[in-house]
Amino acid sequence: MSTSPAGAVDTASAPALDPSTARHLHHLLATEQRASRLPSVAAGLVRGGRLVWSDAVGTLDGRVGGETADADTQYRMGSITKTFVAVAVMRLRDAGRLDLSDHLDEHVQGSQLGRATIAQLLSHGGGIQAETNGPWWERTPGDDWDALAGSPVGQRFRAGRRFHYTNVGFAALGELVARAHGTDWFEVVRRDLLEPLGMTRTTTRPAGKAAQGLAVHPFADLLLPEPEHDAGAMAPAGQLWATVEDLSRWAAFAGGDTGDVLSKDTLDEMYEPHTVADNPGLPWTVAHGLGWQVWNLEGTRYAGHGGSMPGFLAGLRVAVESGDGVVVLANSTAGMGAIGPDLLAALVEREPLTPEPWHAAGDASVLEIVGTWHWGPSVSVAKAVGEHLVLGEPGQGRGSRFAPTGDDEWVGLDGYYTGEPLRVVRASDGTPSHLDLASFRFTRTPYDPAADVPGGVDEAGWR
């Protein structure tokens, strides 16, 4: 994926959308602004690591004649901040500075949160209380970590029992990042994430052109300014401000264009569901990975995060497989609908991605292990697809893809056999005898007696 030399989203070389698509997207955004009575709303769509469309409707103060919003207007992103903190934590893990199974008190002592693991804090599975014990932290200036920890904040549920969204847990993770680097958490984010990605308009307080945080009266067309402040120790839960252009670079990152900031394998790990956002009586479609929300909607996987603070609403979502993404920012305390997913769906529907052409680029050496195999009486077909060996149908039963790890050795990539070893066992003449997959034997014929089937094969054979 292409970015500019500074790492910012590349708009100059971005493919232009069809004018009719742009008009349709503007209509969707303008309709949302009016129907939800948003003072202003700005949005952007990312494809191929590039900002391919952006637009804004409304004024920064919500009044006729006010300054109009655009893609360079700052809004507070709220809890999308947590994804930056999570990436900073995972960079520490990748550097060998911590393990996700570490308890918090191995790195941050002096609180009642210490028995939760870092992985549980990242995935809201530590049972930590949702909010602070003091005044509404989102509307009042914050204190430091010692004051927050001594308030005291603690656990509502046994760690690991269930999903329980916690802003306090991310305050703890911000403190962990700060102590590990010996500097403020945002300085770490700015130095290690924002600067390499060219995100120069992402800050902890409004800077330059910025929207006023506003509440809209539920029964009248009236506005109330919301307070803006430094949240102190709670800042890692929702402090950051950004523009559509900056946040679109983070959406490109979330879509796989991670540059030198994070390995793609680590990003994929962060998207693995850890805790399910379960509401009794309702089917669940949302889970939390390591700092990211993940969705499984009609067979498509998405990752991202929502955000809200008094006066602001925000959303970021990317389709994991394609990298298509959307960001939305508004200066209203409540009321925004599903405009982000709607814009992304419109892009996919009106301008679908063209599949890459197929080319013959296979490896003939795998021909001797493709074809029909039998696990007992069950029939499986092995195929060579790109660099992978595919046994069965991934997503169905125990179907899985396998990546090569050495001569005649493979490892499972998905499904039941994720991480499990597959070994090609050869006969004395060098031809494949059977596959040994996590102790299971796959033979060319059902229960082939020549393939050393564990437990043996009845000498009388099939009857």
TrEMBL record:
UniProt-listed Enzyme Commission number(s): 3.-.-.-
Stretches assigned to the DUF7586 domain: 363-444
Keyword Hydrolase: yes
Lineage top rank: taxon: Bacteria
Keywords: Hydrolase
Pfam families recorded: Beta-lactamase, DUF7586
Gene3D superfamilies xref list: DD-peptidase/beta-lactamase superfamily
Record-annotated Beta-lactamase-related domain positions: 33-335
MF terms in GO: hydrolase activity
PANTHER family associated with the record: D-ALANYL-D-ALANINE CARBOXYPEPTIDASE, D-ALANYL-D-ALANINE-CARBOXYPEPTIDASE/ENDOPEPTIDASE AMPH
Record protein name field: Serine hydrolase domain-containing protein
Species, as recorded: Terrabacter terrigena
